[in-house]
Amino acid sequence: MFNTQEKKFVILIGVVFLVFVLIGGLIIFPQYSKIKKTNNEITALRQELETKYERAKQYHKSQTNLATAKNLTDTVKARFLKKGEEIKLITILENKADSLGLQQKLNLSSNYTKLSNNLSSIGLEIVIVGDYKKVLEYLEFLQKNTFYLSLNNLTITKSTPPSLITDKTKPQTAPASLTAFNLTTAVYVQE
After folding, report:
1. Burial, 189: exposed, middle or buried (Cβ in 10 Å; 0-12, 13-18, 19+)?
2. CATH code, residues 81-190
3. Residue range 3-53, pLDDT digits in tens
4. Is the peptide bond before 162 cis (omega within 30 degrees of 0)?
5. How far apart are CA 33 and CA 103, in angstroms?
6. What is the pLDDT of residues 88-145, one digit of tens each?
7. pLDDT of residue 2
């Protein structure tokens, strides 16, 4: 069937094929498996590092937000009226009304409404009589005031002399048209 030359050639091809299979099976396949395993480890490590990086970014962002919140908290606490310092607010409001030439009547309630552990509100009724532009200036001052006031009710009426507050020692020249603002507010008081 085959001559010896052909047999040798077929055997040589078989041996070469077997050598290639052995090389592939004993050298290349284990290396391929190691490379695939290393690739999977690198991918898992990359994902873990990305997760840690995102957490670190969130941590730094949280620290920045916390610092901002602490500053804001200090600002907010400074704007609450301390219990027992109500006269300070009354003095500020009276001085502003006097500087604008307005007549003012203040009625501070003695009843505190508890809002939380250390925060209450107290009612304050303000009646202002004077020139419309000056009254608006006063309202703007209230809005920008250093204490938190919550406006509950505002009534605007046209007023005519005689004035709300009569003081014979101060000569007063009444404007032709006076405006009266009646404000009902709540002042936040920190205990």
Report:
1. buried
2. 3.30.70.60
3. 788 888 888 888 998 888 888 778 878 888 899 999 999 999 999 999 999
4. yes
5. 92
6. 888 888 998 999 988 889 888 878 888 888 778 888 888 888 888 888 898 888 888 7
7. 67
Report which DSSP code applies to 146: S
Mean per-residue pLDDT of the chain? 81
CB of 174 closer than 8 Å to CB of 134:
no
| Pairing verdict, β 178-190 and 81-82 | parallel
Assign 12 to helix, strand or coil.
helix
**Gap between the Cα atoms of 188 and 182, Å rounded:** 19
C-alpha 68/C-alpha 74 separation (Å) is: 10
Cα-Cα-Cα-Cα dihedral of 124, 125, 130, 134, to 10°?
Answer: 40
In the chain, the amino acid numbered 63 is: Q
The vertex-81 CA angle with 79 and 82, nearest 5°, equals 125
Q: Please choose, from the candidates 138, 70, 132, the residue with its C-alpha nearest in 3D space to the C-alpha of residue 98.
A: 138
Q: In degrees, to the nearest 5, what angle opens at C-alpha 145 toward C-alphas 169 and 126?
A: 50
The two structure tokens encoding residue 53: 């990086």
Helix, strand or coil, per DSSP, at residue 118: coil
